[in-house]
Every structure is written in structure tokens, then in C-alpha cells.
Design brief:
Blueprint lengths: L1 H35 L15 E7 L6 H6 L9 E7 L6 H11 L5 E5 L24 H12 L4 E5 L3 E2 L4 H8 L4 E5 L2 E3 L5 H11 L1 H12 L8 E5 H6 L12 H11 L3 E4 L4 E3 L6 H18 L2 H5 L5 H15 L4 H24 L7 H23 L3 E4 L2 E7 L2 E5 L6
Parallel strand pairs: 1-2, 1-4, 2-3, 6-9, 7-10
Antiparallel strand pairs: 4-8, 5-10, 6-8, 11-12, 12-13
The structure holds the ligand CCCCCCCC/C=C\CCCCCCCC(=O)N[C@@H](CO)[C@H](O)/C=C/CCCCCCCCCCCCC and uridine-5'-diphosphate-xylopyranose.
């Protein structure tokens, strides 16, 4: 009996230590975010800016694609090329890119597409169908020809749903100091209408930002492939882009190459502005489920850590722990825990947004509660099946380095 009491007490104390640690993570993220984001420190020399090849892997269109891509034709940067990569000639994104190429003939921009050649733009003819399928990752397969044809030592991989401010590329390039091999942007979202937009902003500005900023501060690899600028020679030494084709979480392994070789990685002071024109609660949840699968495959400890880094689960567990240790009221404790967490999240979100929020405080409360209360469901959903769905493709995830594409009629 005494032993089980000791065990219970020991567990409660351990949880209490973890809970205290969580507040440190929260506070660190706030302080680091305030110090790091939207502060352009002149770390590099502007005259020394080198050429950058920007790879844009595209699949399909959404109502914002044209305007998002157009921002890349108007960057304030002395030397860059745009390389659009599209898997299939019948993809409607081809038309969008072609109309932009026609509108901006002076911008160095190319379109790489399988199996087709036209005179007005550069198309690469693949001699063998599937010759460029180097692995399971469709994004890597899609970018490969463009990567091989890129002219510059610096490569920016930039996803299709992003828009970029005129000065962002310069900001990223200036952050690429002598010892920094890779600069990535912390994912965030543009101001858009509707509840799904509130939800995405709340998630990327709170829970995601908290871990992302702290990981960057502590030098932990959290590179997101959505927008990252890196030194090509380092990747080539490790086998080139094709070596990443075997991983679905190619971004994590890209970052790992730089970490393993002793390079520093750094976030840009500007976040990545995701602005897809098609968004919904279901889309967000499907994407988050996929991301949970990716990170759990990469770092299995996350399966355990992730639930207890969330407000609700941690709050409930801690309400029990503090009654064991201090005999505090669990209800009062949970209330204070919630209030403080909620306020810290709001402060962090305001820092990441760097301006007024595009929604009311009531919408924030609803978005925050919805996100927090559904996070456990999403974790369960992610861990309940090894099948990962990305766009129209399905994969069976076996381990961090092992996944295979599967063909199924429908996903229940
Ligand atoms: C009590 C606090 C303890 C903190 C424990 C942290 C548990 C992890 C919780 C959430 C993970 C969020 C990670 C955010 C970045 C990853 C975003 C993502 O899923 N990206 C995928 C798609 O681009 C990508 O393919 C996945 C890559 C794997 C990322 C692995 C990241 C590990 C980060 C661990 C950070 C620990 C920070 C601890 C701070 C003390
Ligand atoms: O089959 C595909 C799927 C996706 N892609 C491209 O890959 C990029 C990212 O795709 P999505 O927007 O669907 O997905 P996410 O924003 O969730 O991606 C994120 O998570 C998975 C990581 O591997 C990516 O690097 C990261 O950007 C886009 O530019 C998309 O066009 C392909 O080229 N082919």
C-alpha cells in the first residue's frame, strides 16, 4: 500500500516537473518570438547576395494560385530564377503558370513538365515514363528535374500555397550567414474569411508556433519544407535531392543533413504566409492528421509527448497530480491552468501575427477551444491507421524511412 502511494506521489511529482517545463517552453516561445520575428537584423551584406533558384512544385489549382504565384514574379531580389514543376501536362496549373510567364516575360522563369515540349516555355521531355520517380515522395519526384536544371548554388523550395512579400527572399538570403546552411520560414497563414481560417491562424500562431520557435531556439531540427532556402552543395554532397525521395517527411531529413554536417539552420524573421484559396475544417484536420503521422514516424517519442503538450490533456492530468501533491482543488487548478494557457497563447498569436487579428475575441475563444478540444481526436485519428493520404495519393507508412504508395478505392 505504502509502495503504491509512493509510486502515485512520485508520478504526480514527475508530472508537476513536466508541467513546469511546459510553461518554460511557452514563455521561451513568447520571448524568442518577440525578439526574433519581424526584426530584420542586417546580418549579411546586401551586395553579396547570390543568385537563387526558386523551385515551385505545383499540383492542381485553387482560387488563389494565380495571385500567390504572381508575388514570386515581383520579388525585390537582384538575381533569381523561378522553376515551376508540374507532374502532368493536363494539370490546370499549367495554364496558370503559362499566363504568368506571358505576363512577365522579363522574369527568368521556366516550367518543367513531364512528356511535353513547347517553344514559348521550357518543357523537359522525359524519355522514359517514370524515369524521374526516385522514391515515394511525390513532391521530391515532382521537383527533381527542376532541381537538376537549377542554375544557382542557393535553392529555395517554396510550396504552391504560399505568397511572398517583396522583401522576404532578401530577408532569407541575409539570414544565410557563413555558418548557416539552411534558412526556413515558420508556417503561418494569411488573413482569410471564415471559421476554418480562424482555426488555422489559431493553430499556427499558438501550439505550432510554441514548439517551432522553442525548437529553433534550442537548435532542434524542426525544418518545414514549405519554404526553405539552402546551400545546394551541402545537399549534393549527401546524395542530392533524389536521396530525399525515399522519405515522406523529406523536410525533416533535409534539415537533418545540415545538422549532421555541422551547419546551423535558422528561421527567417518573416513567417511563411500560407494562402491557399481552398480551405476548410476538414482539410485542416486531414492535413494535421498527416503531419502527426509524419512526425511520429520520424520521432516516435512524439506519440507520447504530443498529447501531454496540449492544454486539455495536460490540464486534466495535472488536476489529478496537484490534488495528490498539494491537496489543491482540481477544479480551481484546472480553471487557472486554462486561463493562463489561454492568455499566453493569445500573446504568442499576437506576436506571430504582428498586427491586429482579423477576427474578434469571441471568434478567438471559439477557434481556440475548438482546436484544443479536437486535438486529441486528431492524434487518435492519426495513430489509428498507418495509411497516410496526401492530396490524391495514399501511402502505407511503415517507419520514418519506409513508406509505400498504395492504391485504394476509398478511405473510410
Ligand atoms: C511539455 C512540452 C514538451 C514539448 C514536447 C514537444 C512534443 C511535440 C509536439 C508537437 C510537435 C509540433 C512540431 C512542430 C513542427 C513540425 C511540423 C510538422 O509536422 N511538419 C511535417 C510537415 O512539414 C514534417 O514533415 C515533420 C517533420 C518532423 C518534425 C519533428 C519535429 C520534432 C520537434 C520536436 C520539438 C521538441 C521541442 C521541445 C521543446 C522543448
Ligand atoms: O503529390 C504531390 C503532393 C504535393 N506536392 C507539392 O508539395 C507541396 C506541399 O504539398 P501540400 O500543400 O499538399 O502539403 P503540406 O503543406 O502539408 O506540405 C508540407 O508537409 C509535407 C512535407 O513533406 C512538405 O515539405 C511540407 O511542405 C506543394 O507545393 C504541392 O504542390 C506535389 O508536388 N505532389
Amino acid at each position: 500500500m505504502a509502495d503504491s502511494e509512493t509510486l502515485k506521489y512520485g508520478l504526480a511529482v514527475l508530472l508537476f516537473v513536466g508541467w513546469t517545463f511546459q510553461w518554460n517552453v511557452h514563455l521561451l516561445a513568447i520571448l524568442y518570438g518577440k525578439w526574433r520575428l519581424y526584426r530584420q537584423r542586417q546580418v549579411g551584406v546586401e551586395e553579396a547576395l547570390s543568385g537563387i533558384s526558386i523551385l515551385k512544385p505545383l499540383v492542381g489549382v485553387d482560387p488563389h494560385l494565380y495571385e500567390n504565384l504572381e508575388t514570386f514574379f515581383n520579388l525585390d531580389y537582384p538575381l533569381y530564377e523561378l522553376i515551376f514543376c508540374i507532374e502532368e501536362e493536363i494539370d490546370p496549373a499549367v495554364m496558370v503558370v503559362r499566363s504568368l510567364l506571358e505576363k512577365y516575360p522579363k522574369v527568368d522563369a521556366k516550367l518543367f513538365i513531364d512528356l511535353y515540349q513547347k517553344q514559348d516555355v521550357t518543357y523537359i521531355i522525359k524519355t522514359e515514363i517514370g524515369a524521374k520517380r526516385v522514391g515515394v515522395n511525390p513532391k521530391v519526384n515532382n521537383m527533381l528535374q527542376g532541381y537538376e536544371a537549377a542554375n544557382y548554388e542557393l535553392i529555395l523550395i517554396s510550396d504552391c500555397g504560399l505568397r511572398m512579400n517583396r522583401d522576404t527572399l532578401k530577408c532569407m538570403a541575409l539570414a544565410l550567414r557563413e555558418n548557416v546552411g539552411l534558412v526556413h520560414q515558420m508556417p503561418f497563414v494569411c488573413d482569410r474569411e471564415g471559421f476554418a481560417a480562424v482555426l488555422e491562424k489559431v493553430y499556427f500562431g499558438t501550439q505550432h508556433a510554441k514548439i517551432y520557435l522553442t525548437a529553433d531556439l534550442l537548435g532542434i531540427n524542426c525544418v518545414t519544407g514549405m519554404s526553405c532556402l539552402f546551400r545546394r552543395s551541402v545537399l549534393d554532397e549527401a546524395g542530392g535531392l533524389k536521396s530525399l525521395g525515399q522519405y515522406l517527411a523529406e523536410d525533416y531529413y533535409l534539415g537533418k543533413i545540415f545538422f549532421d554536417k555541422g551547419w546551423k539552420t535558422s528561421i527567417c524573421s518573416q513567417p511563411a504566409w500560407q494562402n491557399p484559396g481552398t480551405y476548410s475544417v476538414a482539410n485542416f484536420q486531414a492535413r494535421m492528421t498527416r503531419w502527426v503521422k509524419l512526425r511520429s514516424a520520424v520521432q516516435p517519442f512524439i506519440v507520447l509527448m504530443e498529447p501531454i503538450s496540449e492544454w486539455l490533456i495536460l490540464g486534466l492530468i495535472m488536476s489529478w497530480a496537484v490534488t495528490v501533491i498539494f491537496d489543491w482543488s482540481p477544479v480551481a487548478f484546472f480553471f487557472v491552468h486554462t486561463l493562463v494557457w489561454f492568455l499566453l497563447d493569445y500573446i504568442l498569436l499576437r506576436i506571430v501575427q504582428n498586427g491586429p487579428l482579423p477576427f474578434t475575441k469571441t471568434e478567438y475563444v471559439i477557434g481556440w477551444l475548438f482546436r484544443e478540444c479536437t486535438s486529441f481526436y486528431l492524434l487518435l485519428r492519426a495513430h489509428s491507421s498507418p495509411i497516410l493520404t496526401w492530396r490524391s495519393k495514399h501511402y502505407l507508412v511503415k517507419s520514418s524511412a519506409q513508406a509505400e504508395e498504395i492504391h485504394i478505392r476509398s478511405i473510410v
